[in-house]
Amino acid sequence: MPPHYTLAEGCPYPDASTSVQLRDGRGGGLSLLQDTQLIENLAHFSRERIPERVVHAKAAGARGVFKVTNDNSDITCADFLNGVGKKTECLVRISTVGGESGSSDTLRDIHGFSIKFFTEQGNQDFVFNNTPVFFIRDPQKFPSLNRSHKRHPSSHLPDATMFWDFHTGSPESIHQLMVLFSDRGTPASLRQMHAYSGHTYKLTKEDGSFKYVKFHFRSKQGVKSFNREESEKINGSNPDFLIQDMYEAIERGEYPSWDLCVQIMDPKDAESYKWNIFDMTKVWPHSDYPMRKLGQLTLNQNPRNYFADIEQAAFSPSTMVPGIAPSADPMLQARMFAYPDAQRYRLGVNYQQLPTNRARTNVYCPFERDGAMTFYNYDGDTNYVGSSVSPAVFASSSSGRGKVASTITEHEKWVGEVVSHISPVEEQDYEQARALWNVLGREDGHQDRLIGNVADKVRLVKEGVLRKRVYGMFVLHEMLSMADLIEMFGRVDAKLGKRLEEVTEKQVV
Name one GO molecular function term (predicted). Predict the structure, then answer.
């Protein structure tokens, strides 16, 4: 039978271009409630949209393959990272963070980089960004951070006062702010940017030993950025520029690729390292912990249906295979709850069963059953844990997450002490931002461009006291009648703070 139109249940339909009408003999007619196609068409159209992501709403996506290029057996038992030449199917979604789904993708923003590996041990998700650090290290601040970057609840407009009021009250964000307002904040291509875990993870072995690591995806195409003028020009002519660039490159057969690398730290070294390794606002300098390559990711297939493949794709840092484990990083721990909870809201309680998310392995999960849109057809023996007639057994304790210790180790005691107090801002919070400022000084005009980018945003703040807080100087609190040192850009470098003030105040209207 040749291809033909059907209803959703598969029943053929004679004419998909018109509704059924009862003719009156004079050319007129009445629509009939029995017109199943019309009713289904209209009813489904009203339900085509699902809630978009609160953050990371706009994205490009593609499928590809990860290939192991190095022997990694000395650091992890993760199956997909072992065996030189081993290949694993992948799904990647690269997104902006702050804007809505219809916003421009070339505006200054952090970009998310999410990867799902369909491994032989189940799915492995990485949910990374294109910057090695983040604005905050305390998850309690996460909702406020994102609200301050979005639209004002009264005006429904982007609001510079909200933005800078939050960040001057959370000066640990200075390192990320300097990355964001450098040229790195406006990538010229999704194919030409790196991606970083930011978080500290563990790579584990079957004997329970582990190493702390930070993951890096290094673009094989190099890194390319727009300056502010270029970004704004393209934003006005093509708000979908980065999505189009990625899609068309893959269609041409110019498949982008990234090297997956790690920095490795021994747990004992972490106890004496100069920075808290669970602090997401800090990097590990490569001079201390050099990169080691694990494999290569290549994207080679565009989605056939964007909504089904990419919009419904769900990623979570909590999705880990044996051989990879979380650290005590408070931000990572919070994201491990927040991400799957967001998908349960957006897609439904069984979002893992959608084709784009479904594991390629046999899933035998008595912990979750029934609910809306259940697709797995478990037999009755999987109804509960511990059934005497069930063929399933529990995995070995040496499955790679680390054996369960009978007592708390000295290292675990140290971890508990380190992460118990993460909010105070200290001098070390400015050290890496200061180092970045010096690095930008090696590139012609980059320091000036950063100052111009920040000034362009700060000039929109009408309150002069708040602008001074951004520059970084003593500010007199009118209500408290006292001076307070607000430590932002001027604390990184006195000349930076002074120059930022000069440029901004000339622009203030």
Answer: heme binding
In this prediction the pTM is 0.90
Residue 77 lies in a domain: yes
What single DSSP character describes residue 277? T
106 CB-near residues (< 8 Å, 6+ apart) = 186, 226, 231, 234, 235, 239, 241, 242
Residue 27 CA to residue 29 CA, distance in Å, equals 7
Any domain includes 80: yes
- Alpha-carbon distance 385 to 112, whole Å? 37
Residue 485 backbone zone (phi > 0: left; psi -120 to 50: alpha; other: beta): beta
Residue among 56, 111, 149, 216 flagged as catalytic? 56
Q: Which string of DSSP letters, residue by residue, matches 442-463? A: TSTTHHHHHHHHHHHHHTT---
Residues 6+ apart with CB under 8 A from 210: 202, 203, 204, 267, 325, 402
What are the structure tokens assigned to 141, written together? 């601040």
Residue scoring higher pLDDT (98 or 17): 98
245 sits in which H/E element: helix 241-251
Domain boundary (331, 353, 375) is at 353
285 and 237 assigned to the same domain: yes
DSSP 8-state code for residue 183: G
Q: Do residues 200 and 257 both lie within one domain? A: yes
- At residue 379, does pLDDT exceed 50? yes
Establish whether 56 is a catalytic residue.
Answer: yes
Domain that holds residue 12: 1-48
* 339 known ligand binder: yes
DSSP code, position 353 = G
Annotated catalytic residue, options 82, 129, 302, 350: 129
- Average pLDDT of the segment spanning 129-142: 96
Dump pLDDT digits (tens) for 202-239: 999 999 999 999 999 999 999 999 999 999 999 999 99
Give CA torsion, residues 316, 320, 326, 329, to 10 deg: -10
Q: Is residue 448 part of a domain?
A: no
Strand, helix or coil for residue 386: coil
63: tokens are 């499928």
